[in-house]
Every structure is written in structure tokens, then in C-alpha cells.
Design brief:
Elements lengths: L7 H9 L5 H19 L2 E4 L1 H14 L9 E5 L26 H8 L3 E6 L19 E2 L2 E5 L5 H8 L5 E6 L5 H6 L3 E4 L19 E6 L2 H11 L23 E5 L7 H10 L3 E5 L7 H16 L17 H14 L4 H22 L5 E4 L16 H5 L6 H6 L3 E8 L5 E7 L5 H15 L9
Parallel strand pairs: 2-3, 2-6, 9-10, 9-11
Antiparallel strand pairs: 1-3, 4-5, 6-8, 7-8, 7-12, 11-13, 12-13
């Protein structure tokens, strides 16, 4: 067996130098899946046959592909041609799509090897991974705790060493929270940088797709492969602000975003000579309230297509959380309540965006927690939906305003549960965030870590 985990660079160097083969890599990851998946509930579908076929191709070709031999796990919200795609819901339990999502195709063409489809909150409705109709994903760092949601399996697959990279979706922290709960790096990109074609929609004005990995370099390398226009998603824009010189960077900290332990990360950036500036963002305290009006409204519209007539099963198979959001969304859009709720929320969203734009005229990035707490116990918040929704309180601003956010791991609790934070930047500032992230990793001597299952 190969000594895992590896970075993308180490994987490709090993393949080119014939230290191991792509088939041996697949052997190693599948061995982990076969040994631990039944207990952790990470993969809903394992694509063993497809993985070996692609691995044999990689061993034969050994050419300059950006992600040659890199195993990838896809959140089960991404359509995969000929491979079951459930969105974590019994409604689509037997659905097999006839085409693949754009980023699935792009990763395939870059040489990546799909190892399987990962568990997630049904329709991406959740912050913990407990709303999946196929059961909760367990956190490999401690099986009594949640893996974060909604991209629970995508994160747990990496921390359990079942894949090297993964894909996720982020409508309100659904990439960043699982990454932080599993000691991983992840990117919620600028809205409109990566195509969402072939990704089952949750809330269309908020949804973003992005990568998870063990390091900033790995996440950047995936981002470079999957970004850009595809001709299918009309929201995609090809633009970048470029990378700014390190000596001129300023990071803002708002009292509205300050959380326990954040001061340690701030001190690292201070040591690097980066100026830390206090900024004021009073309207962002309404972000989570605004989000939980706009998002259910869009959910109620997007889920209307799943009627069981053309494909999938009947609407009776919707879970409790899906039903809750459909009802909330229909209510705020209904006659007599539209102006009082939805229209007002949209106006506040515009105000938050203006406030964020003003702050980014003063600083290059914002630092904030991803979640108000470390991973919590399975079942701890399931009986109180409002308490669960507050898990996203620090995540909502990036989605409402369309800005990018890079989640970074940083330390552990006394119970050995992962901790981390996020860096948010102005729209199209991914390169600056990557630069800051790599500086942070170098200064702290960061090394990827996996759970000791």
C-alpha cells in the first residue's frame, strides 16, 4: 500500500518517477473506502470499475495532464454521466444522468480519476450532514461528531484518506464549514467564476461550486482547471483582479466577525508584516436573517421541478428539511407577504453588498471564523432548526455578496477536533487569497493531517 496522504505534486512526481502506479493509488484509496465507509457513511456510490479504467489509462499515458492520476470524490449534487446522482435525497435514489456537470468533465479531461459520489445533506439543505436521506456522515476525527454540511462526505472523504481532492457546493458555508470541521483547505469562489452547469440547484443567486484539498496549492491547482466559461452557465465571467504584492496587503477585522481563537491567526499575519485594520460592518448582523428568507424562496422554486413525472420518485419522498424550506419559501413569496419579507430582504442584501464594497476599498481581505463553534455532536442540534441555521452566521455574507472566501485549517481543540478560519476578498480576488493562504501555511509550518480512524 502507498503511504497516504499525498499532495497533487507528490502524486504526479511519484507517477512520473514510477514510484507507484495509478492503479496502486486507486488500490490504496479503495482499500480505505472498503474498510471504513460502512461506519463513516461517506460515499453513497463507489465508482470502482470507472476508477480502475481511468487509472490504467493514466499509467499508459504518463503525460503532462494537470491532474493526472489524482483521485477525486464528487459531492452527489454533481451530475455524472452513467453514474447514480441522488442529491442526498430518496426522490432521486435511482436517478442516473445522461450527461456530466461541466467541472466533472473538466476534471476528467485534466486526468483526474473519479473514485465515487459522496454523501451530503439532501438537496444541500444543512450545515451538519445530518439531513441526508441516506443517514448522517460521521466526522473521521471523532465519529460522534458531525462532518459539517452540506458537503459533508466531500470533506470527510479527504480527512479519512479515501480520495485526494473533492468537489462541493457552497450556498451558505457548505464547502467552508465541512473543510474547517475536517482540517482542510477549501475555496468558495466569486459568484460566476465557475460554471454550475450540471449541478443540482439549491438557491440560484447564491450557489457556488468549488474545490476541497489538503493545501492551498492543491486547491489553487483544481481551481485553475475548473474555472472559466463553458457556454452553458450564463452567469460565468472570466475576470481576475490578479495577485497583489505582499508588502501592500491589508487585512480587515470587523467586530461583527470576531470569534474565539481568531486572534492567534491574526498574530501570524502581523508577524508577516501585513497590516491589520479594524473595520465596521454593522449591516452584516442581518445577513443570516436575509439569507433564510431569500434562500427558501429560491429553494421552493427550484424544487418544483422534482415532480416525479419525468424522472425521480414522487414529492412524498421529500424529507422534513426540504418540506420546511419549501413552505417557508412559498410563504415569503405569497401575496400579502412578498413586500414584507422577500422584497425587504433583497433591499437589505443590497445594503450589505454596498457595505462590503466600501470595506474592500480600505482593505484587501477580511478575516473571520467560518463557524461559531468547532464540530458538534451528532444529534445535538437536530431538534432545533433555528439553532442549526445559526451555524452559518459567519458564512452568509460571502454568499449574499458574491465574494470569494478561502477556508484554512489552524489548530485543534483540546478534544482534537479541527479548527480554522476564512479569508474573504473582493470579487475576483482569488489569487490574492491564495497568496495570503500560502504565506500563512509557510509561516506556521503547515502540514496536511488526516484523521486517525
Amino acid at each position: 500500500m502507498i503511504d497516504l496522504p499525498l499532495t497533487i505534486k507528490e502524486t504526479q512526481e511519484g507517477l512520473m518517477n514510477k514510484k507507484f502506479s495509478a492503479v496502486e493509488l486507486v488500490d490504496s484509496y479503495l482499500a480505505r473506502i472498503n474498510k471504513y465507509n460502512k461506519d463513516l457513511n461517506i460515499f453513497l456510490t463507489v465508482t470502482e470499475e470507472e476508477a480502475y479504467k481511468k487509472a490504467k489509462w493514466a499509467d499508459k499515458i504518463l503525460s503532462n495532464y494537470p491532474l493526472l492520476g489524482v483521485t477525486v470524490a464528487h459531492k452527489d449534487l454533481f451530475l455524472t454521466k452513467g453514474v447514480r446522482t441522488t442529491a442526498g435525497s430518496k426522490v432521486l435514489e435511482s436517478y442516473v444522468p445522461t450527461y456530466s456537470a461541466t467541472i466533472v468533465d473538466r476534471l476528467e479531461k485534466a486526468g483526474a480519476i473519479m473514485i465515487g459520489k459522496t454523501n451530503c445533506d439532501a438537496w444541500a439543505h444543512g450545515s451538519s450532514g445530518e439531513n441526508s436521506d441516506f443517514g448522517a456522515t460521521k466526522n473521521p476525527w471523532n465519529k460522534n461528531y458531525v462532518a459539517g454540511g452540506s458537503s459533508s462526505g466531500s470533506a470527510a472523504a479527504l480527512s479519512a484518506n479515501m480520495a485526494l481532492i473533492s468537489t462541493g457546493t457552497d450556498t451558505c458555508g457548505s464547502i467552508r464549514v465541512p473543510a474547517n470541521f475536517n482540517y482542510l483547505v477549501s475555496l468558495k469562489p466569486t459568484y460566476g467564476v465557475i460554471s454550475r452547469y450540471g449541478v443540482i440547484a439549491m438557491a440560484s443567486s447564491l450557489d457556488c461550486v468549488g474545490p476541497l484539498g489538503h493545501s492551498v496549492d492543491d486547491v489553487k491547482q483544481i481551481f485553475d482547471v475548473i474555472k472559466g466559461k463553458d457556454g452553458f452557465d450564463s452567469t460565468v465571467i472570466e475576470k481576475t483582479n490578479g495577485e497583489k504584492p505582499n508588502s501592500k496587503l491589508k487585512i480587515g477585522i470587523a467586530k461583527e466577525f470576531f470569534g474565539e481563537g481568531l486572534d492567534k491567526a491574526i498574530n501570524v499575519f502581523k508577524k508577516l508584516g501585513i497590516e491589520i485594520k479594524e473595520v465596521n460592518m454593522p449591516t452584516t448582523k442581518y445577513a443570516i436573517s436575509v439569507y433564510y428568507i431569500i434562500q427558501p424562496a429560491e429553494v421552493s422554486s427550484n424544487l418544483a421541478r422534482f415532480d416525479g413525472i419525468r424522472y425521480g420518485s414522487t414529492r412524498q419522498n421529500f424529507g422534513d428539511e426540504a418540506k420546511r424550506r419549501i413552505m417557508l419559501g412559498s410563504y415569503v413569496l405569497s401575496s400579502g407577504y412578498y413586500d414584507a419579507y422577500y422584497l425587504k430582504a433583497m433591499k437589505v442584501r443590497t445594503k450589505i453588498k454596498e457595505e462590503v464594497d466600501d470595506v474592500f476599498s480600505q482593505v484587501d481581505a477580511l478575516i473571520a471564523p467560518v463557524s461559531p463553534t468547532p464540530p458538534f455532536k451528532i444529534g445535538e442540534k437536530t431538534k432545533d432548526p433555528l439553532k442549526m441555521y445559526l451555524t452559518d452566521i459567519f458564512a452568509a455574507t460571502a454568499n449574499l455578496t458574491g465574494i470569494p472566501s478561502l477556508a484554512l485549517p489552524f489548530g485543534f481543540t483540546k478534544d482534537n477536533l479541527p479548527l480554522g478560519f476564512q479569508l474573504m476578498g473582493p470579487r475576483f480576488s482569488e489569487e490574492t487569497l491564495f497568496s495570503l493562504g500560502k504565506m500563512f501555511e509557510k509561516e506556521t509550518g503547515y502540514k496536511p493531517k488526516i484523521a486517525n480512524i
